[in-house]
Write a structure and sequence with these properties.
Elements: H1 21-35, H2 42-57, E1 61-65, H3 71-77, E2 86-89, H4 96-105, E3 110-112, E4 129-134, H5 142-155, E5 158-163, H6 169-176, H7 179-188, H8 195-204, H9 208-222, H10 226-234, E6 243-248, E7 253-258
Parallel strand pairs: 1-2, 1-4, 2-3, 4-5
Antiparallel strand pairs: 5-7, 6-7
Amino acid sequence: MSSFGSRWHLFEFMDLPWLPASLRQVLRDILECGNGRPFRGYYDWAVHCIVCQAALAQAERVVELGAGTAPLTRRLAADPRATGLKLVICDLSPDLALYDALARQYPGKVEVLREPVDFSQPRDWPPGTLLVLSATLHHVPAAQRVAVLKALARSGRAVLVLEPLRRTLLSAWFVWLSLAPALLAPLVQWQRPGRWRRLVWCWLVPVAPLLFVWDGLVSCWRQWTAGEWHEAIASLPAGHACAGQVSETLFCQKVVLTCRRVGADDQFGFRTP
């Protein structure tokens, strides 16, 4: 069996269909709280990666797949470096109230896809589209990820995968520190919609912080190493002509896939290197 498909896919509470919607939303809130200032600079790093990759690929549109609370789109919309980029939000379970509010705040810049979007299925995106998955791909079982990468390669030429954790003991230790943002999220996000659900699940019935730590540890376990990423990319059909670049920081991982169909260099509307 391939090394990147040989581990158990332990469950995350975020993925369980029976989890109350309000509790799932609080887990998303905590994720955004913990990955942003003042706790850590993951979103700053992710936005920088997106801006640089969009410029390199001469992208006109950035699609946040599996957007959740749309943390990257919210930050990109306010970032002058993203001027001129069309920002698209979508999710398998879209938070339409949040997305619509963001679109009203940035008319003409933020576009909302109101129907569920499953990134594991091929989709014809317009030319010049950069597909971004942040803290998302690890939810797909390892044995199924190559099939998902094939679908992404068929959907667009440029794909950026960002993860806030790695499969290391240091990352696992770091996850325990996320108890702080989990407990402080009701205060940090006091002005954000959803105040009462965060008060209930973080303080009154404080299960969300414990579930969040479990999900973080499982997220570490689910991550691919750089070697496993290269093995997976090499296993893609030759017709997709995918090149992959994997880079890592102390805790984070960035994967850039540049794909084209053989004999169709300009199919996706990007400059051919």
